[in-house]
TrEMBL record, chain A:
Native species: Nitrincola tibetensis
InterPro entries on file: AAA+_ATPase (IPR003593), ABC_SmlMolc_Importer (IPR050093), ABC_transporter-like_ATP-bd (IPR003439), ABC_transporter-like_CS (IPR017871), Mo/tungstate-bd_C_term_dom (IPR008995), P-loop_NTPase (IPR027417), Sulph_transpt1 (IPR005666), TOBE-like (IPR024765)
Highest taxon in the source lineage: Bacteria
Name of the protein in question: Sulfate ABC transporter ATP-binding protein
Entry GO CC: ATP-binding cassette (ABC) transporter complex
Keywords recorded for this protein, A-Z: ATP-binding, Cell membrane, Membrane, Nucleotide-binding, Sulfate transport, Translocase, Transport
Keyword Membrane recorded: yes
Domain ABC transporter intervals: 3-237
Automatic annotation (TrEMBL), chain B:
Top-rank taxon: Bacteria
Location relative to the cell: Cell inner membrane
NCBIfam families in alphabetical order: 3a0106s02, permease_CysW
Keywords from the UniProt entry: Cell inner membrane, Cell membrane, Membrane, Sulfate transport, Transmembrane, Transmembrane helix, Transport
Keyword Magnesium: no
Chain ranges passing through the membrane: 20-43, 63-86, 98-121, 141-159, 199-225, 245-269
UniProt-recorded name of the protein: Sulfate transport system permease protein CysW
One Gene Ontology cellular component: plasma membrane
Record function comment: Part of the ABC transporter complex CysAWTP (TC 3.A.1.6.1) involved in sulfate/thiosulfate import. Probably responsible for the translocation of the substrate across the membrane.
Pfam families in the cross-refs: BPD_transp_1
Keyword Acetylation among UniProt keywords: no
Main localization category: membrane
Length: 383, 285
């Protein structure tokens, strides 16, 4: 069932939770609402479910206006952030609840309910816990019960509010994968809320990035990552190294730091955004950039070694983060306090008064430093 | 080397033992001795005397009036308390905080004052009372008046028990119920009520104890008409003023008995609530 959000806005007292916004969710898609807390994503989800009423606008399910349809009759599955299991009922009773409150005419017979509950619990792999109470379950198990309970009504729309927010990292990953396969199997339309970029990018067909009650960008994860349309989306998707500088012709300058751009820019001020993997480090500056940095911390865990760096002779609001390969780390052995130079390979330039960034690529002007071969060469060597 | 008994700060034996004996002395003289004395006095003329006193027409009437008032007060305040707790914990509206504070007025005001207020309002010379008098409705100096002040005095008990619990539990479970298609009544009976049942019983026990034992407010509006508007606590006073000490203590022993039962039920319910709260804490982890 497709969902259309049309011109929906919501205000809580003085606080404008949602600016009028419109969103189209095609049938069968898994859509993530991504944004920081207070961005209005949960409010939007609750309005789609009918748990909250919007001040303006309409909600359409499959082309039909459901704005004034009560939650009870919208027949959506809703999974709450803190599971909201009925604490005085067993797991099986929780899952059966939706079927048991059906009007007599629609309600399946008791053995039929029993059978359906057993099937649902098998599907979420919790058949052996049917007689337990929610307080006797782990977080991941509770979340699966909550899902089974929502799916008992065979909803065509499944809404999930921070479904994995309260779980630890490993369980979260398992459940994420499991939800994805469930979605692919049952073909309902799902919308989930999250503040975790990784989760949104991994799980969704389409990501809706929200901030301050507005939709910033709606795109597939790949598009979103490669072509962020605004500064906010850029900032929100992972760490960014920023050079805030004055423009002099084709040169960005701030204190001791400067970068030569491939072409001249006309605005007086600009910001250069560099993703951690679009920069490399070496011990001498190159012809097109001089970005001196001091190593603050070295983190060895993960696929690459992550260095936290402090600008040397210039300013940045947040320390820089740049990843180097383990091979480069072993050859170089960088230490806290060492000095080095960042060399941008790809950059994204935000010019004053323009929302969309311009992506820049520097032709390989690299000076081959024996200690700092190009990373691609190293990767080839490692693999 | 000599081993020393390890003492923590404030752990001197003489402090401990003098505090324990002081506590025992106070509990003994102020609570236990009077309680025992009531029953000793009540059976002063033997079991036969106790039975004679209790089957006295006026005493029987006082007992039945007290039971009637309690039996009507409990359902009224039960419904009112649940309604009020639901209102202030599930809805946002201007004046909500003020309403929560106002619930406590009957606790803050002396029952005698409450009785006097009702007398002024509903008495034959009162604003509403004189009009009611014209309609041939008499509230004061009859059992409806007693019921009214009892309801007033006991109305916070149920709501006071429910509000903190319902605030703690939040409305997520009810929202979950409604998304699953439950109607308002199904939601209340299957989700809300099971979650609040022990707090509700606790509130009812307290309401009952107070409704049966209330003296001040009732004495102002009852008029002390023997066999008509005399409740059990008023009856005790009346008998005592008649120099019928054994009779007075017999009725008092009934009230004391109710108190003991209340205490027993109360501690049982508290134990159940503590157990439920432990489960709640585990859930919120």
């Amino acid at each position: 069932m497709s969902i259309r959000v049309e011109n929906i806005s919501k205000r809580f007292g003085q606080f404008q939770a949602l600016q009028p916004l419109t969103l189209e969710i095609p049938d069968g898609e898994l859509v993530g609402l991504l944004g920081p807390s207070g961005s209005g994503k949960t409010t939007l989800l609750r309005i789609i479910a009918g748990l909250e009423t919007a001040d303006t606008g309409r909600i359409l399910f499959h082309g039909q206006d459901v704005t004034n349809v009560h939650v009870r009759d919208r027949r959506v599955g809703f999974v709450f952030q803190h599971y909201a299991l009925f604490r005085h009922m067993t797991v099986a009773q929780n899952v059966a609840f939706g079927l048991e409150v059906l009007p007599k005419a629609e309600r399946p017979s008791a053995p039929e309910i029993h059978k359906r509950v057993a099937n649902l619990l098998d599907m979420v792999q919790l058949g052996h816990l049917a007689k337990r109470f929610p307080s006797q379950l782990s977080g991941g198990q509770k979340q699966r019960v909550a899902l089974a309970r929502a799916l008992a009504m065979q909803p065509q729309v499944l809404l999930l509010d921070e479904p994995f927010g309260a779980l630890d990292a490993k369980v979260r990953k398992d459940l994420r994968r499991w939800l994805r396969s469930l979605h692919d199997e049952l073909h309902f339309t799902s919308v989930f809320v999250t503040h975790d970029q990784e989760e949104a990018l991994e799980l969704s067909d389409k990501v809706v990035v929200m901030s301050a009650g507005k939709i910033e960008q709606v795109d597939s994860p790949q598009e979103l990552y490669s072509r962020p349309e605004s500064r906010f989306v850029f900032d929100f998707l992972g760490h960014i190294n920023v050079l805030d500088a004055q423009v002099k012709g084709s040169r960005l300058q701030q204190g001791a730091a400067w970068v030569e751009l491939p072409k001249a820019v006309t605005v007086p001020m600009a910001q250069l955004y560099l993703r951690p993997h679009e920069v490399h480090l070496q011990q001498t500056p190159v012809a097109h950039a001089n970005l001196p940095l001091t190593i603050n911390a070295v983190s060895l865990i993960g696929a690459e070694v992550r260095l936290e760096l402090q600008p040397d002779g210039w300013q940045a609001d947040e320390p820089w983060e740049i990843g180097i390969s383990h091979a480069q780390y072993n050859a170089w052995q960088p230490m806290r306090g060492d000095r080095c130079y960042a060399v941008p390979d790809i950059g994204h330039l935000f010019m004053q008064g323009v929302t969309e960034p311009e992506t820049l690529t520097w032709a390989s002007t690299l000076i081959q430093d024996p200690n700092f071969p190009k990373r691609s060469a190293h990767l080839a060597e490692v693999s | 080397m000599q081993t020393r008994a390890s003492l923590r700060v404030g752990d001197q034996p003489w402090v401990k033992w003098s505090l324990i004996s002081l506590a025992l002395f106070i509990v003994g003289t102020l609570l236990i001795v009077p309680l025992v004395a009531i029953f000793v006095q009540a059976f002063g003329d033997g079991v036969q005397g106790f039975l004679t006193n209790i089957t006295d027409t006026y005493t029987l009437h006082a007992i039945s009036l007290t039971l009637l008032v309690a039996a009507l007060t409990i359902p009224l305040n039960l419904v009112f308390g649940v309604f009020l707790a639901w209102l202030v914990t599930r809805f946002e509206f201007p004046g909500r905080k003020l309403l929560i504070t106002l619930i406590d007025i009957p606790f803050a005001v002396s029952p005698v004052v409450a009785g006097l207020l009702y007398l002024l309002l509903y008495g034959s010379n009162g604003w509403l009372g004189s009009w009611l008098m014209d309609q041939d409705v008499q509230l004061m100096f009859s059992w409806p008046g007693i019921l009214m002040v009892t309801v007033f005095v006991t109305c916070p008990f149920v709501a006071r028990e429910l509000i903190p619990l319902m605030q703690q539990q939040g409305k997520e479970e009810e929202e979950a119920g409604v998304t699953l298609g439950a109607s308002g009544w199904q939601l209340f009976r299957r989700v809300t009520l099971p979650n609040i049942q022990w707090a509700l019983i606790y509130g009812v026990v307290l309401t009952n104890a107070r409704a049966m034992g209330e003296f001040g407010a009732v004495s102002v509006v009852s008029g002390n008409i023997r066999g008509e508007t005399n409740t059990l606590p008023l009856h005790v006073e009346l008998l005592y003023q008649d120099y019928n000490a054994v009779g007075a203590f017999t009725s008092a022993s009934l009230l004391a008995g109710i108190a003991l039962i209340t205490l027993f039920v109360k501690s049982f319910v508290e134990w159940r609530q503590a157990r439920q709260r432990r489960v709640l804490d585990e859930v919120s982890e």
